[in-house]
Specification:
Length: about 260
């Protein structure tokens, strides 16, 4: 498959993980919104559940989308501690993460659970960011593409081509998350390209050309430009650097440069 220079709108998400308190979160989102200006990039933040309503009130009227870091696939009932898609939408959430490596590896989420959550999110009309990626051990054993393929095939089991239009794949090599180690642009490009080929095999070439595949793992202002210059890297999912408004803004700006290059 040749990679077309398709003008996929870049997507930059800030995954705040279990960070900030109410006042820090409010100050952070105010700085992000104030610094944004006009942009050709889809921008989202994923605060902790308990702050979502306050953050959404501040983003109201801006182009920043508010997302959730997780969801539960049942619609309601006796699931202590869990949050449904209806509850999220009630709090102005329009996008959600599924399969984040910390949920897979720390909270022991299985491929099957990730698949149930992914389908529930898509059925609810939420822009769903399915996170995948290999551990260091898997990479050192040459298993990167095989692990990504297994996680995508199981994560998207039962997902139609039509639903795929509201899905983003985040390639987040586990060894690069929060470590300061980043995949080289060429290594990340190779993984993204293999993922796009897989989507062509599972669905068709149109679906592969249209789907956004974003990179996560120690992306920061210093490396965002070279990663986002790669043909198959359509944006970023940012952890640590998304907690600093200036750094997050600089990464959005690098994605704006990508958008201008693709359109121009
Ligand atoms: P870091 O940017 O802190 O490495 O986190 C990446 C990530 O896990 C985003 O979901």
């Amino acid at each position: 498959m040749s990679t077309k220079n398709t003008p996929r709108t870049p997507f930059v998400g800030g995954n705040w993980k279990m960070n900030t308190n109410a006042s820090e979160g409010a100050a952070l989102i105010r700085s992000i919104v104030d610094g944004l200006g006009s942009t050709s990039v889809d921008v989202a933040v994923y605060p902790p559940f308990v702050y979502i309503r306050e953050i959404a009130a501040i983003t109201n009227g801006s182009s920043v989308q508010v997302g959730a870091q997780d969801l539960y696939h049942a619609s309601n009932g006796a699931f202590t501690g869990e949050i449904s898609t209806d509850m999220l939408k009630d709090c102005s959430v329009s996008t959600v993460l599924t399969g984040h490596s910390e949920r897979r590896h720390v909270l022991q989420e299985t491929n099957e659970l990730v698949n149930q959550k992914t389908k529930a999110a898509l059925n609810a009309g939420l822009t769903t960011v399915l996170c995948i990626g290999e551990t260091l051990d898997q990479r050192e054993h040459g298993k990167t593409d095989a692990v990504n393929e297994a996680q995508i095939r199981s994560g998207l089991d039962g997902v139609s081509k039509a639903d795929l239009s509201n899905l983003i794949i985040a390639y987040e090599p586990v060894w690069a998350i929060g470590t300061g180690m980043t995949a080289t642009p060429d290594d990340a490009q190779d993984a993204h390209h293999a993922i796009r080929e897989l989507i062509a095999n599972m669905y068709d070439q149109d679906a592969a050309d249209a789907i956004r595949i974003i990179y996560g793992g120690s992306m920061k202002p210093a490396n965002a430009g070279e990663l986002l210059a790669m043909p198959d890297i359509d944006g970023g999912l940012i952890g640590g650097a998304s907690l600093v408004a200036g750094d997050f803004g600089a990464i959005i700006e690098a994605a704006n440069v990508r958008a201008a290059t693709l359109v121009g």
